[in-house]
């Protein structure tokens, strides 16, 4: 049973398209996150939700919109994709903030 | 400023050597948390350890050990008798309360290559 699962694993798309990445956790955690890992492996937080409420929004372009329909899901929708959006996006969850993060396996997004 | 510095970008060792990965952090918070994560070539992020700022005891887990020194704001990670399977990127991270919420700040990572 995968604790944090995100789909798709790979996403190749053209500039200007809109795409979504889905994330689900079956750990009963209250807090979920999206992180972006760039080509130099640098990991940066994008968003965090606690019990479906947005608590962190780290200067991310408003083309990125997270949606949390319930505590177990945090999806990421990206409008008007740009070349610079190419990266690996990781979903994660934790029981509470500042606790151990459980990461999904990542979604490699390539914008052509 | 809240920041994590992993000055070693890449380290290359031969199997069975001991290796230490450095991590220096900056924060003015008195309560904070420190983490290490491993990212093997397969890409997933694997949790290794979490320590809070009030617990300076060093920790050993098998071949892994961690040295937390508040006086130098460091949380170094040592692998004893390294193995090829230890080859990965290792991230140190700082958990702080900043801007009204808690968040995790990652270092840039250290790529460790262990050769047979």
Report on this model:
The complex is a heterodimer of chains A (112) and B (116). The mean pLDDT of chain A is 91. Chain A is globular, with a radius of gyration of 13 Å. Chain A has no helices and 11 strands. The termini of chain A are far apart. By secondary structure, chain A is mainly beta. In chain A, strand 5 (43-50) and strand 6 (53-57) form a beta hairpin. Chain B has strands at residues 3-5, 10-14, 19-21, 24-26, 33-39, 46-52, 59-61, 64-69, 74-79, 88-98, 101-106, 110-115. Helices cover 0% and strands 57% of the residues of chain B. The relative contact order of chain B is 0.34. In chain B, strand 5 and strand 6 form a beta hairpin. In chain B, strands 2, 5, 6, 10, 11 and 12 form a 6-stranded mixed beta sheet that branches. Chain B has a 4-stranded antiparallel beta sheet with strand order 3-9-8-7, with no helix packed on it. With 116 residues, chain B is mostly beta strands. Classes of the chains: A mainly beta (112), B mainly beta (116). At the A-B interface, strand 5, strand 9 and strand 10 of A face strand 5, strand 10 and strand 11 of B.
SSE layout:
The complex is a heterodimer of chains A (about 110) and B (about 120).
Chain A: E1 4-7, E2 10-13, E3 19-25, E4 31-37, E5 43-50, E6 53-57, E7 64-70, E8 73-78, E9 87-94, E10 102-103, E11 107-111
Parallel strand pairs in A: 2-11
Antiparallel strand pairs in A: 1-3, 3-8, 4-5, 4-9, 5-6, 7-8, 9-10, 9-11
Chain B: E1 3-5, E2 10-14, E3 19-21, E4 24-26, E5 33-39, E6 46-52, E7 59-61, E8 64-69, E9 74-79, E10 88-98, E11 101-106, E12 110-115
Parallel strand pairs in B: 2-12
Antiparallel strand pairs in B: 1-4, 3-9, 5-6, 5-10, 7-8, 8-9, 10-11, 10-12
Brief write-up:
The complex is a heterodimer of chains A (about 110) and B (about 120). Chain A is mainly β and about 110 residues long.
């Amino acid at each position: 049973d995968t604790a944090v699962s995100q789909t798709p694993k790979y996403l190749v798309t053209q500039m200007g398209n809109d795409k979504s990445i889905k994330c689900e956790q079956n750990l009963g955690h209250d807090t979920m996150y999206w992180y972006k890992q760039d080509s130099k492996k640098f990991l940066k937080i994008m968003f965090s939700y606690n019990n479906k409420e947005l608590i962190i929004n780290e200067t991310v372009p408003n083309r990125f919109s997270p949606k949390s329909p319930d505590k177990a899901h945090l999806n990421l929708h990206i409008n008007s994709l740009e070349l610079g959006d190419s990266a690996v996006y990781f979903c994660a969850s934790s029981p509470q903030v500042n606790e151990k993060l459980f990461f999904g396996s990542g979604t490699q997004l390539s914008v052509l | 400023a809240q920041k994590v510095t992993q000055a070693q970008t890449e380290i290359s060792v031969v199997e069975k050597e001991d290796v230490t990965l450095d991590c220096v952090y900056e924060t003015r918070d008195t309560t904070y948390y420190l983490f290490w994560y491993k990212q093997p070539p397969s890409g997933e992020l694997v949790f290794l350890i979490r320590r809070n700022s009030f617990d300076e005891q060093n920790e050993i887990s098998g071949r892994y050990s961690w040295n937390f020194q508040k006086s130098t704001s460091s949380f170094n990670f040592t692998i004893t008798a390294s193995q090829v399977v230890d080859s990965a990127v290792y991230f140190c991270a700082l958990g702080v309360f900043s801007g009204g919420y808690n968040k995790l700040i990652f270092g840039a990572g250290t790529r460790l290559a262990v050769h047979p």
